[in-house]
Fold these 4 entries.
Entry 1:
Amino acid sequence: MAIATGETGIHGACAPEFTRVREVFEDNFARGLETGAAFTVFVGDEPVVDLWGGLADHRTASPWKHDTPCLAFSCTKALTAAAALRVAERGGRDLRAPVASWWPKFAAEGKDGVTGEQLMSHQAGLPAFDRRVTVAEAADHAAMAELLAAQAPVWEPGTAHGYHSLTYGWLAGEITRRLDGRTVGRYVADEIAGPLGLDLWVGAPDGVLDRTARLTTGPTNRKPARGNGATAAGTAMPGTASDAARPDGEADGPRARLARDARDPESLFSRAFASPDVAAVPGKYNNRDVLTAGWPAAGVITTAPALAGFYRDLLAGRIVSPATLQDALRPRATGPDRVLHLDSSFGLGFMRPSLTFAVPRAARKGAFGHTGAGGSIGLADTDHDIALAYVMNRTGTELSGGIRAMRLVKAVYDCLR
């Protein structure tokens, strides 16, 4: 690959045929949309883009380095799903069987028919805790799972789906914890990240936290220069300027309902995202107790090369068999989301193209992956044999994806033509 360093402050390498990707990455910084960020792309096993730049910590002006890890929020769900799929594959477990067959207490409140596949595809009807959960409580994975096992579903499982923003990890994560005996974080370290040499952690040790990028906020969606825009932007947090710029065309459309729910602390949407109560601890998602806890829905700390490498290895059959992956990508839940109101689509843990996982037209058949709140993304494409990841420490208002990531993804596909 050609080295891409210079006055722009962007470092790394980019194959000549992917020069457009480097230009878009640089432009995100030039327009003041980034603090620090990294973007990696593999075609097959070959790295064709590996870029980074900016600041890992705006307070100390510490530069972002090649090995700077960053919290990537719900990108974690793909790792939790992969762990569950691997455990089930190796143990000969059928995820279509009732969860209660291996987690008896889960049968409470009429959930005896809920299957493992429904846990993994946001169909279980448990998108929020019935009570406020503290960050300290959330460190106990078994206790979180037991709280959810005792709850009644808010819809009949299997009849609808809704994004389980944080509860997903303690539901799908029980497949690994109960059938293997290890937490998701321990399993990922032992069976995936360690053997494959991936710098990612679901629950990071202190030594990693010392060099982890510090999250900050700021503008992330200024209009791009002419010719630089992506056709597909991420789903904006309701009530923001980005959201207002995408009218439903009707007063009670899905975006309007989502905006109302975001303002109502008792709505299903607000409860799904507000507990565990990160807002109550100093530093919020920069808090070390949050970052070490290994929340299996939103706790991965990763470099861009590691997250892209995870998807590369998924495609190559190094984590689960190609047949298991192909089956996992078959959409299990598609259409209006009971939490987000917008259309979403899920296989077994992986997002598929939809309004909440927006991808270029060329990616709509083979793309899968997961976004993270604030703008991060991990994506692979079975048709094009590509794997990519974007991580950054300036979190935007996007619930899923974002203009920075989508411009980069679009640039990648433009370079494949």
Note: The chain has 15 helices and 17 strands.
Entry 2:
Amino acid sequence: MSRWLDVLKNMRFKQKLILSYLVVSLIPLALLGAYSYNQSKLFLQKQAIQGLQNTVGTLARGMNDKTEQVERTVDSVVMNTGLQRIFATNYASLTTLSEDLRNYVSPYFSMIKNLNTDILQLTVYTSGKMPEYGEFILSLDRIKEGSPWYKDIAEQRKTGWYLESSELAVFRPFPTILYNQMSGILYLKLNKDRFFDSLTTTTMTTAQSAHDGLFISDPNNHIVYSNNIEAAEIQRQMLQAPLKNKDMVEIDGLRYILIQEPLRQANWTLHYYIPEQDISMDATSIVKATIALILTCMVILVALISVFSHTMIKRIYHLNKWMKQVQFGNLQMDIRSDSRDEIGELTNRFGIMLRRINELVTEVYQNKLIQKEAEFKALQAQINPHFLYNTLSVINWKSLKIGATDISHVVTMLSRFYRTALNRGESMTSLKDELQNTQSFVEIQLVMHDYSFNVSYQIDEDVYQYDTVNLSIQPLVENAIVHGIDQKEEGGGKLTIKAIAKQDTIDIHVTDNGPGIDKQRLGEILIKQSQGYGLKNVNERIKLVFGKEYGIEVISEIGQGTTMIMTIPKYRNTKSQ
């Protein structure tokens, strides 16, 4: 205990003052606020749930009325003795049957459809000798195999509800007809959107949330209707998750309030859910009381601060005045303080920071000078390529003058090679220039090799409109000549260069008929810096610019030659356009 008293005794005055303010004001306010918030949250949440239950109950009653209306429509058909008589009679005369169908069945069914706009189809499936009549009377054989709901007929003798594609189907077996024991099934297909339009247009005014939802499930936990298709997965999880209490369920760590109301006629359940945190709570009275208490405490705190902090504020004003001068550009002040409290330390640290800023300004100025000098040197370095081109032009002119056309040809190819290779310092170039650069290199190599090998070009003209990494094809050709053709011991060398335009990519094939590459070196040629090959750098540059799915593939067998395939996308460099 004495140790803590010593710590408190040695604390600075400002720390003691802040600590006393926290103890006197913040702790009671925090306790009172927490208690008030929890009590108001429980009360208002209960009130909000009650409101949601009333709203969902109203919706459920509306849906029950709709299902009961459908039930009454079904009863009016299957319990109609006139219809039972017609379906049970074995007509000897087709004329009599036609009159009954035309004068009774057709008008009666048409009237039902006109009175119930939700009904899209009304059909009686019969198993007797009754002929089919439009869509009103069809043979039972049509649904025995292909209709899933037909299997439920044997299990229940009451009205069944079935979700069929985007429509709702309602079916009910006719009572056994005593005349000849013939059975029949009434089938109604309902417009799903119109049947559930009251739910689609309903807004839950009790709570507004971007994560709430309304859906209906059947006894097999299949979702019959949902006003938010995108939340179907969450709704399915709610059907499986156990309730933590009467109205609460937790999905993926988020607590939802779940209100459920049964729809008796269809044996469905109406569900409404909303995140617990999204329920709007009107805590006006609690907020007003808390604000009044905070204002009272603030008045007391301001009075205490005004008494104890006058001496501190005076020095803060001086520090603020110095900061304003620095803000307006006066960085040449020497700011120091002899005080050892927090304000004195802050003043001295601001003075140190100001001196450091002056040092950084001087350093940045010197770096600018160094940068300008480097730019000047880079500008001077650009003269060298021009000097090289001019020199090669003079050599070419002299060669033509003395009739040395072979020297002129080599000099011209060399000049064109370096112009495209340097590419004005750009890392990207057109495929047309890159292929011309490669052709110039091959021409020079042909002269150097005394035309001892043949060259074949197979270029799709479509590739000329695209761009690639500068100096990417020439290294492949150089490898093919140095490590392929030059190593061939017998027969003439052959070099083939292809550029193939595919749907989204371009393949560059460089093939030689050299001795090939052994499997060990072939496996390392693109992942290690193999001496004399240099393919690793080209492969890495392509992947860096275009992505990991592009690059170089090497295919080779001993004695069968080597093919290097460079794959790049159809890319246009906007900077070069």
Note: Residues 438 and 519 are 28 Å apart (CA to CA).
Entry 3:
Amino acid sequence: MKRLLLSLCFFIFITTYSRAQGLHTIKGRTIDTASTTLLSGTSIAVLNAKDSTLVKFTRAAENGSFELTGIKNGKFILLVSYPKYADFVDHFTLDSTTQVKDYGKINLTGMAKILADVIIKGNRTAIKIKGDTTEFDPKAYNIEPNSKVEDLIKQFPGFQIDKDGKITAQGKSVPKVLVDGEEFFGDDPTLVTKNLRADMVESVQLYDKASDQASFTGIDDGEKTKTLNIKLKEDKKNGYFGKVQGGYGTKDFYQGQGMFNKFWGKKKFSAYGILGNNGTVGLGWDDRDKYGGSGGLTMSDDGGMYFSSGSDDFDSYDGQYNGEGLPVARTGGLHFDNKWNKDKESLNTNYKIGSIRVTGNRNSINQNNFSSVIQNNTSDQSFDKDMFRQKLDVMYEIKIDTTLTMKVNVDGALKKSNTSNHFITETTDGNNGFLNSSDRTLSNEVDDQNFNMNVLFTKKLKKKGRTLSLNLNQSINKSNSEGYLNSLNRSLGKVDSLTNQLKANDITNSAFKLNAAYTEPLSKTLTVIINYGLTLMNGKSDRLSFNQSGSGKYDILDTLYSNNFELNQTINQAGAIFNYKKGKTVINFGSKFSGVNFKQDDIYHNKTYVRNFINYMPQASYQYRFSQQKSFRISYNGNTNQPSLDQLQPVRVNDDPYNVVEGNQDLRPSFRSNINANYNAYKVLTNQSVWLSGSYSFTANPIISDVTTDGVGKSTYRYINYNDKMQTNFYLYGQISRKVNTLGEINLGLNANANGSSSYNFITINDNRTLNNTKNYTYSGGINISKYKDKSYSFYTRFGPTYNMSRASIGRNSDGWGWTGYASGNVQLPGKFEISTDAEYQYNGKTQVLTESFERLIWNASVSKKFFKAENLRFSATVNDILNQNIGFNRSANNTTISQSSYTTIRRYLMFSVSWDFSKMGGGIKTQK
């Protein structure tokens, strides 16, 4: 009896204590809804509602029952999971009024037999983080009929797409979009995002694409490209689909577009064509750095120097439309890819052809503030630029056996361009006193030819982890041009120079590169990759200037502005990178060295320049993966930067006699160090994503400009090393987003961005030499809000402030606030009518040197009517730039210069258009006429 009383007292004490501490019990029983079978072994988890962290976990007993005890007061989530059954998720609160939370029977429904009258509480996992890949599930987002991939990825957290289709993800540009891991029209991402249907997509992957060798060895070589991979559903890989669109508007604006895609099995064929004069110059026409450069004599990453096709206005036009001028464009392309022989062989080929012509005017005003000296420069330019280009690329890959693979890439391009530019410039002092003027006309015809071939062999050896790869590359680039320079230049009331010349340039570059990589596992956790590379480069640059003789022919060679260079280089590169991988940790560290033997012959002046140097490229990285949805990475890389040939021995040009560059043979290399860090995390149940990234770089012994400006406004540029100070750059980005259920399931995101730089240069005015320190900083933040309601409405908006700081030690500060914003949305009305609109807002406030603010709102809107059950025929009326504020105006203030420019651009117009989406895909929407 005594023991019984003691036990009863102890039980009462424990119960009272538990209640005082707010401890609770959760229990229930899991049952198959259809068969009433008790589900033993079911996973039951209690999570914190605030951050989804695990509080308690158990498994159901043989009779399906479970009980969790000792849970304190608070808000929680109950997650019940069983293989091949839909999850049961419930949000609940425990307080002093509830001692036991009894769910009773929890009915779980098989994934294959979900009943219509059963409500499953919970969220679909919208994002998964697998290694370095973030994967988005389209089924967790809203997909309208005939919507495109672009409409889908606009809903992803951390993504932005501008009006031209440019994608930014997690604060970084995304230049490459793949389809099922394969390139689709090469480097043209918007051909995928603007044309593939969203309902065809199984998943979307975002990752940093490594080089082919790094992908094979598994060891980071530092070469990364932010990439989207669109994985298609299996039942959407048979059939065809496409789009035809045409429109005509006021002021004779027009646009036409067509695309056809046929998928059958593992084969894909696509064709597209575009024409118009409304600014749609192509779906990503951006080859400015690939098919004919404009940088004169430049240097590659490994230290190699080569001639590019231009060093002045004669070769600078690349055909890209950047919003200035009125364009007329006609572009098209073909694509085919296939896999066969049990996927051992694959082929991917693209052909693109196009022409673009841009005409217009540009007027610029610049003010240079050099302490007590002020110079004002005005420039009026008229231009007419025409370019035609063809490009073909082919990729073939074969898996010779289970250990040996060969991949061949071949591409070639032909480009013809005709340009004409007329400049009228004048420079005055601070009291509007005349200093100099120039009246120049430049015309040029250029033929460019480019060819590249790359062969990669990869071999897995007998020992696990031991590999060998060999990469061979051959490139040939030719550029021939002919043009005329006519200029009249005056200073202080007299003629400085009168030029009437024919310019003829013949430039050829060829390069052969070999790179071998061998990986050796030193232990279960440590691997080393050893690299050796050999590069042989040859270049010829024959630039001729002819004056006009009395007969009217251009047959008198001007030796001062003519030159003929031959360039030969041998580059040997070697290095070793170690890779440590254990558990959640991955570490890379090592370095590469390249020895460059450089020889340049000046044929006209019978001079030879020899230069030998060594480049040093250390690297290291550390990555820790906390979980599948959370990781952190920090990396360092350093590069020796050799002076360019333009800085050492520039080619003399006379297109602008008031801006002259001199060479400096005594230049030494600089060394740049760069540190990068990023953190990302995603919480499934709260749909919360966080991305943080940053970088900091500093350059020792930088190469800086030394500018001397004389009394008539002529500036002479020279480059020197500066040892006393380092140049620095930094970048910070942070973003958090989540779905807020209390606001009607609105997607809400916050972001902050900061970047800046500090650099130096010497400025000499009236024999007074001063060191100038330029600092430019930009701070911005913003909020983005979006919501998609199926068959009703959708909207997306982002806006936020910016603060720019521009400071020069010998000039004036120019600090000021600004605002940027973008909004788009659509409303679906009865009768299959739809109203769509988008607007972009820009505000730049006053600064110390910019005494007036600038504000612009570019607003577009359309009304459309859809037809047929599939809603695939659409008639639209669109007003571009409703407020007529796209006036073609820019202004800026940085360093010692205040700039303002106005230019011809596309303004308000009304366009009527019709578009037809057609398809016949497995399980897809069929076309109706």
Note: The helical segments are 2-21, 149-153, 190-193, 212-217, 645-648.
Entry 4:
Amino acid sequence: MKAAISSASSALNSTTTSSLSMNRWLIVLGTIIVQMGLGTIYTWSLFNQPLSDRFGWDVSSVAITFSITSFALAFATLFAGRLQERWGLRRLIRVAGVVLGLGLILSSQVSSLTLLYLLAGFVVGFADGTAYITSLSNLIKWFPERKGLISGISVGAFGTGSLLFKYVNSALISAVGPAEAFMYWGMIVLVLVVAGSFLIREAVVREQSPVNAKEGAVSEPAEVHQQYTVKEMLRTKEAYMLFGIFFTACMSGLYLIGIVKDIGVQLAGLNVATAANAVAMVAIFNTAGRIILGALSDKVGRMKVIAGALLVTAVAVMTLSLVPLNFGIFFACVAVIAFCFGGNITVFPAIVADYFGLKNQSKNYGVIYQGFGFGALAGSFISALLGGFHLTFIVIAVLCAGSLLMALIITPPGTSLRARDSHNKQMQFNPSSRAS
């Protein structure tokens, strides 16, 4: 009888574990769909000139919209964790998808820059950031043993959405004009985000058991010794070091994304059509960097990947600033910077989870993610202050060098204390060590 019960229990556990594994990959699919819809905001540069031509606005004034979008996206991550606790993950993502879609649809009716900044800038960015941080953090919780790879898949889907919609939005702008294109873009994004949310299931972190299939709970890896709250995280020096590194990584990548076409024309002497191809190339290499460096970080260590990416980025921006550019050098530097930027923003969610635990991942990463928002604004402001590309690239290279040093020396909070405790225990239980 006991043997029969044991056999039945084993079969039930096997079936439940298989079901949980299948459910986890359905959650991956749902997150990919959501992230692809969210990533479409990175096609904004396609609208700058057409909107300028239609309404007579200055191109640089229209381009400010994307800076506002990026800042609002980062700002939203400060509140997304609390909203998730109040509403639940699936409901929050659906609401964010509806608000994002409506923000774009209503942007089709604007006739002033102020309304464009409000709707396409703040509203769209806030909704995008809310769904981005919560869906990404949730997926990482479902795969604590593969944080780098899973982060790469999720953030890579964000980049893929940008790449695919470069062609979708280009076709819409050519067919119906920039204003009407907003309406169709908004409807498509609304459907993608809301549809993807139905496949997502919220993870609950448990510290004591590897996997609890009945409760949908996942375990914390053994190396994490404390689940930090936001307040506790902000008491560590590592939080501020990570913010500084992330700020530098984001500024270098976001500044390039905003001006890559102009660099090709003004510094490399390319025609407008050829330089415009760099926009697609940024999306391709950005996505590749997210997947490749995310998976690599699981194997060689996350800070090693960050340090390597910062070093390569510094060399590339110095090349853009100091070396006479041609077609090959220009595209090589752009590809390298985009690849490293994609990898950096992919690995950082996993770093925050490694350093501060999974339980409060959305809130903790939301704080560090403010480096993205400030980085989005800093590049443009520094460029305006210094008067051009060359000096701005030199500043970015210097910041990369400083961040590289921090990446080489930073360790998880309490590492030295735990190492000392471990050494003391060894001394206590090893008489020969004490005698020596």
Note: Strands lie at 204-206, 211-212, 217-219.
